[in-house]
Amino acid sequence: MKIVLCGHWDTVVGTSLFPASTAEIPSPSCEEALSACARGMRQTLPELEVEIMPFGPGDAFVAACQQSGGAVVPLNVPFDCQDARALGSRVREGAQEGRRSVIEAGHVASVDLWFSFLAGMAGRTSSELEERAEAVGLREVVASVVAQCREDLGEQAPILAATTLRPFNGMASMLAVNPDLSARTDVSMSMASEWTRAIDEADTTARSALPLLNGTQPRVTSLPGSGAGGGIGAIVAACGGQIRDAGGYLVEVTGFAQRVEGAHLCVILEPYLHGPLLAESYLPALTEVCAGSALPVVAIGMDSSLSRHEIAQWGLHGVMLGVDSADALENLGRRVAHTWLRRVSRSI
Known about the structure:
Blueprint: E1 2-7, H1 12-17, H2 30-44, E2 49-54, H3 59-68, E3 73-76, H4 85-96, E4 101-105, H5 113-121, H6 126-136, H7 138-153, E5 159-162, H8 189-208, H9 228-238, E6 242-245, H10 246-254, H11 256-259, E7 265-269, E8 272-273, H12 275-278, H13 283-292, E9 297-301, E10 303-304, H14 308-313, E11 318-321, H15 326-347
Parallel strand pairs: 1-2, 1-7, 3-4, 4-5, 5-6, 7-9, 8-10, 9-11
Helix pairs in contact: 2-15, 4-5, 5-9, 6-7, 7-8, 8-9
Pfam family, one: Gly_kinase
Organism: Schaalia canis
GO molecular function: glycerate kinase activity
């Protein structure tokens, strides 16, 4: 019997929106969580074939890309990131080595990471660009740096794997809404307008130098996912890169559809099973593939507000909950083996 065990155990976003656990035991890493769950299953059914796949944000995204091979440089924007210059520098270094970077990003806490990221890609410092902006204006600085990055990166312009569809600007954008869905009050309308115009004009100016790309195109700040990573999505698009759905990207590069062939059950680790979080998670991409193969799916988490109807809506057949520890996950693995796997084995 074969089972596909995938997902992640990144609790940073969840604990920022929901009460954090008071346990003194540190939260297990993605690798530790998946291994503990698999260990519990094998203790109950030693003959079980368990295929483990990290699949999610943060370290899970990087690990999934590395396991799939290829020449890309996998990176991610942490939820609590305050300065993305180092990230931009790594994109620049990768391009100089002939490697394209893929950056995983969602709806993060900061709104101005785009500026430090742009500085890093251009090999500059944020303070240097700020001083120039004070002297000649933000629009001129952003336009010149975006043009430089387009030329320097060329075909190695990065891919932004977005877990959020929020644009850079607009009523439902990352400038208007906090990750907890409350209204932002720390960004003035004048500041948002200045940032938006600077990025859109930089993109328009850069594209005007490329005749084949002329024509009516949407503003980069209105593109779905352009608000990912504190506006890094908009900068990636303006510099000639792509914005991709993160879940769809990982399904493609990991060959998930092929790896679930012949499996009897899929177990997904997703710490917080709440509608608003699942809407910007990797779970829908996984359950969509499993549905196409008529594969039952069980989610393991530590907190859930899903009703039975909502569980079915998200493509799940069952949910199991436990506390945030490796021992609890091992126990949940045993419970899956005693219940779902025995039920599946009787139907084979």
